[in-house]
Design a protein that fits this description.
By secondary structure, the protein is mainly alpha-helical. It is built from six helices and five strands.
């Protein structure tokens, strides 16, 4: 493979470094592989539980907080979604009885999103099959050494992208 550099940034000349063809190929492989993994896991999740990946993400976030409730702005931040995207998803979940909306006790202007008993039951029912799919499609493909290397890589990327989290 050619090592023809591809410009990666437009910073000062002293810090410019070009992306090599090999680096670009690894990047594309990462994007393609994670996309395929997400597609397959999402299809399995929907097939096994009737929950979409978006449903699962919202229910997971609510299931992890005390009282199974969050203000919508905090929920949007927790799952890194825009408030608009979350609002549409919450409407779909509410129609199915998986979440509810209640006035915020601390601030009568706000609303809290609450995981209903039906939502908690749907989430619990989806968790074991989803974990099995993650094991089959992801974990079974990697050796312990590869897991350790992947953990190291992801930790390095996380630190690079958000150094303030480490402070």
């Amino acid at each position: 493979m050619s090592e023809r550099p591809i410009r990666a940034d437009a910073g000062p000349a002293s810090t410019r470094r070009r992306l090599t063809s090999a680096e670009l190929a690894v990047w594309r492989s990462l994007i393609d592989t994670t996309g395929e993994l997400e597609r397959r896991l999402g299809a399995r999740l929907t097939e096994d539980s009737g929950l979409s990946p978006a449903d699962y993400r919202v229910l997971l976030a609510l299931s992890e907080v005390p009282g199974r409730r969050l203000r919508s702005s905090m929920l949007a931040a927790a799952i890194d979604w825009t408030r608009s995207r979350l609002s549409h998803q919450l409407g779909r979940l509410e129609k199915r009885g998986l979440i509810g909306r209640e006035d915020c006790a601390e601030d009568n202007r706000g609303t809290e999103i609450v995981l209903t008993d039906a939502g908690a039951a749907s989430f619990r029912a989806a968790t074991a099959p989803h974990a099995r799919a993650i094991k089959e499609l992801f974990a079974d493909a990697l050796s312990p050494d590869q897991f350790a290397a992947l953990d190291d890589i992801l930790t390095s990327l996380r630190h690079h992208l958000s150094p303030e989290r480490d402070s």
